[in-house]
Amino acid sequence: MRTVYVDNNATTQVAPEVFEAMKPFFRGLYGNPSSMHFKGGEVQQAIVEARKKVANSIGASPEEIVFTSCGTESDNAAILGTLESYPEKNHIISTRVEHPAVWTLCKHLEKNGYRVTMLSVDREGRLDLDELRAAISEDTAVVSIMYANNETGVTFPIEDISQIVKSRGIPFHTDAVQALGKIPLDMNKSTVDMLSFSGHKLHAPKGIGVLYIRKGTKFSPFLIGGHQEMGRRGGTENIPYIVGLGEACELAARHLEEENNRVRFLRDKLEQGLLERIPDTLVNGDREHRLPNTVSLSFEYVEGESILLMLSNLGICASSGSACTSGSLEPSHVLRAMGVPFTAAHGSIRFSLSTYNTEEDIDYILEQLPPVIERLRDISPFWRDYINASSKK
Amino acid sequence: MWDYTEKVKDHFMNPRNVGEIDDPDGIGEVGSLACGDALRLTFKLDEDKRIRDVRFKTFGCASAIASSSALTELVKGKTLEEADKITNRDIADYLGGLPEEKMHCSVMGREALAVAIANYRGEKLEKEEFEVVCNCFGISDKEIERAVRENNLHTVEQITHYTKAGGGCEGCHPEIRDIIDRVWGGKEKKPPLVKPAKEEKLTNIQRMRLIEETLEREIKPALRQDGGDLELIDIEGSKVIVALRGTCSFCPSADFTLKQYVEAKLKEFVTNDITVEVKE
C-alpha cells in the first residue's frame, strides 16, 4: 500500500544526510567532551561545529544556543528559568492557543499561585495586540507566545509582539517549534529574548531540542548539574543528536525556499482541491498569515477520528483536532479558543506537508478523501437532516 | 493509536444495518453534534412482536459507529423485553471489548435502545425524575447511576469514560462523587458489617468470605476515593496476601496504609490475628 505522510507537524522522518552524519558518534566517537583525553577531544570539536550550524540557521551566535532534550524542555526551561530570575514578580502572559508544553505549564503555575493571563484569539486565530498591551503590568515576569500554531499553522506577528513586550522591560519567549525551517528566522534582526525549537520537526531525530537565549538575558538553569552548556543546562551532551540537529538545521536553511514555493504550492493545491470536491468544508485559521506547509480543514457533520482511521486504512497519515483522538471529550482547545462551531470542530483534520511530499501524494489524497467523507456523511444522522433543511429553503 | 479489536475495526469499516426505517415502530435519538457523538436508532417489529428490522445512523468516532452496528446485530430478532435486557457491557463484549475511554460509546447505544423502546410503548421517559448533573454533556443522575451499577464503577474518571459526564468543565465532579457514594457507600442501603460474636467459631470458609466482604465493602471504596485499589491474591490461614493497584501501586505511603488501615480494618471485622502482606 502507498504511504502518504502528511503529519509533519507531529513529527518528520529523519533526513538520510542527518542519519549519516550521526552514525560515527554511536560507535567509534563515543567520548565524553568533558574528558581530558583524546576521546573527549574528538567529540568536543563536533559539538562546536554543530552549535555553529544551528546558530547560523537562525542568525544567532553559537554561545546563545543551549541544547536540550526536546521542545517541551526548552519551553519549560525558558519560562521557569525566567520566573526564577525574577522572584519578586508573579504574573505570566501567554495565549489560549499555545502547545501543551506551554499551555499546561501555565495552568500548572496558576495552580501554584502565579497569576496567568491567557490572551484570546479571534475566529481566524489572530491575537489582539491591544489586549496584550493592556495585560502587561509591573508584576509581569515573562511573556511566552508561540511563533506558529501547530494545529492551524497560523503565525503571530512575533516581532511586533516582542517590541511591545520589550518596551516594557519584560523578557519575551517564543515557542518556535513549528516555525523553524518553514519561515525565515533571524535573531540578528529580532528582539526576541528566548526561542525554543525541536529537532524532530525538521528531519532530525526525536530527543533533541534547542533553547536560544539572547546574550544578556537573565536566566537560571532548569536542569541543575554539571557545567555543560556554559552552566545553563546540566547533563552530558547528547553528541549524536546534537550533530544530527546541526546537519538538519543546515538542510532546513537550504530547503527554506523550496518549503515556501513547492511545498506551499502543494498545500494550496490540496486545500483548493478539497474545498472544490467536498461541500461544507471550512478552512480553520487565517490563510494570509500561515505556515506554508499546514492546512486545517473541517468537514461538517462527520467526526475526525473516523476520518483519520479510514484515511489510515488507505495509507494516508494525517491528524485531527477532534476530541475522540485525544481521549479527552472536548475538541482541541485551539479550535475552541477560535470559536469554531462544534459542528466543525469535531470534524477537523490537519494536513502538514514536508519537502518529501510529491504532487502524486496530493493527487492521491484528492482522489481518496472525498468518498471517505461521503461515506461517513451517509452514516451521520445530521447530514440528511441538513440537506433536507437546505433544500426546503 | 487506539487499541481497537479486529471486531471493532470490522464493524467500523463495514457497519451493519446503516440507515433509517421510514415508518418505524420505535425511534430513539441520543447525543448531539455539540457532544461529538449522536445516534438515531429506528426499528420495525414483525407480527410476533419481534424486532424484524433495525437501522442506525451515527455521528461519532470509530467505536461509536462500531457500537451502533453491534447493537443492531444484538437486538435483531429479539422481543422488546429481551432487547431491553441488553446492557452496554453486552455491546462492548460483542465487540471483544472497547478501550476504557471509549466505553461511553457502548452506553450511547444502550441509551438509544431504551429511548426507542419507550417511544414504541408510547411512554415518555419521566423527565421530572431526572436531574441533569453534567451540563456540558447533558447527562442525568439516572444515566450516571445506571452506568455505575451496570459497570461496577467507582471513580469520577471511570464515570467520564463511560458516560462523558464530568469531561467538560469538571464542575459536577462533587455531584458525581455523591452519586457513586450513594450507590456503593450509602450507609442507609447496606447493613453494616457485624463482627461475629465468637471468633473461634469461624470456619475457614467463613473467615475467607468475611475477609473478602470486608475488603469489598469497607476497604476498597475508601482506597478508590484516592484512585487506589488492591486485589486479593491469596489467604493463607490468617495471612492475607494482596497486590496493590492504581495509585497505591506507586504510593510512598502504601506500607503505612496497609498496616494502619487495611490490616486494622481486617483485624476489626474478621479476627485479631490477621496480617496483611503484599505480593512481591
Write the layout of secondary structure elements.
The complex is a heterodimer of chains A (about 400) and B (about 280).
Chain A: E1 4-5, H1 16-22, H2 38-57, E2 65-68, H3 71-85, E3 91-95, H4 100-111, E4 115-119, H5 129-135, E5 140-144, H6 158-167, E6 172-175, E7 194-198, E8 209-213, H7 228-231, H8 239-277, E9 281-283, E10 294-299, H9 304-313, E11 316-317, E12 319-320, H10 323-326, H11 333-338, H12 342-345, E13 348-352, H13 359-379, H14 381-392
Parallel strand pairs in A: 1-11, 3-4, 3-5, 5-6, 6-7
Antiparallel strand pairs in A: 2-8, 7-8, 9-10, 10-13, 12-13
Chain B: H1 6-13, E1 26-32, E2 37-45, E3 51-59, H2 62-75, H3 80-84, H4 88-94, H5 103-120, E4 132-134, E5 139-140, H6 141-151, H7 156-163, H8 173-185, H9 204-225, E6 228-236, E7 239-246, H10 254-269, E8 275-278
Parallel strand pairs in B: 7-8
Antiparallel strand pairs in B: 1-2, 2-3, 4-5, 6-7
Helix pairs in contact in B: 1-2, 2-5, 4-5, 5-7, 6-8, 9-10
